[in-house]
Amino acid sequence: MHVTLRQLQVFRSIATLGQVQLAAKQLHLSQPATSMALSELEKHLDCLLFDRSGNRLLINVQGKKLLPLACELLDRTNEITHLFSAKNSLSGKLTIGASTTIGNYLLPQQLIRFKTKHPEVDVELDIHNTTTIIERIASMELDVGYVEGPCQHPGIEAIPWREDQLTMFCSAEHPLANKPTVTFKDLEQAHWILREQGSGTRFIFDKHIGQHLRQPHIKMELNQTEAIKNMVSAGAGISCLSELSIAKELDQGEFVPLSFQSKTIKRQFWLLLNRKKYRGDLVNALLNATQVKSLPLRSKLDKSSK
């Protein structure tokens, strides 16, 4: 058997992107060379790694068995290259996923500091809602995830990261802006502009506020925090978002916080890691930069991990 690193690179790219054409572009290879590499790998292993559906390749059971091992071998190869490199600095690529509030208002500053310390590391940040980040961590498309909603996926390790607080608010011109305390009746009669189902912010709102309202008037559900803020600013309704996302507007008096039965809505931010995915120097460097204690390396190849 002669499995090559190039074949594993091709396999990982196709598993992540779902198309030979996209994998070829990512690896700077021709499409025929990419297809041939995958064909040779499947021939060596005597099994198909993908189910074909048109021009899409969907990773199958055998491919899912290979993926964590292939990722680890490729990551370890990069670390070996770095170990004997003349440059005394980390290099490689990190693909990070973050839910909307974290990705837009918290993580960018930390990633800037990380890049300043490790300029040779390429960082890709994808921002989606919590549900999407969980799915992409589970499929090994992302190295690390930062989310604001709970994760119950058995293949993902969810580590408490930091706390956040949600605030109900309205525009300074809204009728509720002058009320010292709002009531259930006020909240039931108000028009709400909320995040979409599947977002961590919406989950916490439903848990602490929404489920207690008999018939909340949800006027709009939007998947972008800035769009919600613009709608509230225009007087379309009230909302509930992280204080991180509305701090500037609260300080400037554009938004007014709504006090409700002295209720504080706190939530936990979470760091997500795939339990099967190898955690090397790049991941641990990122955890240190974002003030998360480095975790032991996990390896499917190490006997100690069995």
Keywords:
single chain, 306 residues, alpha/beta, 7-stranded mixed beta sheet, two-stranded antiparallel ribbon
Structure description:
With 306 residues, the protein is of the alpha/beta class. It has helices at 5-17, 20-27, 31-45, 61-83, 100-105, 107-117, 130-138, 184-189, 200-208, 225-233, 243-252, 281-289; strands at residues 50-53, 56-59, 92-98, 121-127, 144-147, 156-171, 191-195, 217-222, 239-242, 255-257, 265-274. Strands 3, 4, 5, 6, 9, 10 and 11 form a seven-stranded mixed beta sheet that branches. Strand 1 and strand 2 (56-59) form a beta hairpin. Helix 1 (5-17) packs across helix 2 and helix 1 crosses helix 3 (31-45). It is elongated.
SS strand fraction: 15-25%
Mean pLDDT rating: 89
Class based on secondary structure composition and strand pairing: alpha/beta
Q: Please give the largest β-sheet.
A: 7 strands, mixed
Report how far apart the termini are: 25 Å
Radius of gyration: 23 Å
In short:
This protein is an alpha/beta fold and 306 residues long. The protein has helices at 5-17, 20-27, 31-45, 61-83, 100-105, 107-117, 130-138, 184-189, 200-208, 225-233, 243-252, 281-289; strands at 50-53, 56-59, 92-98, 121-127, 144-147, 156-171, 191-195, 217-222, 239-242, 255-257, 265-274.
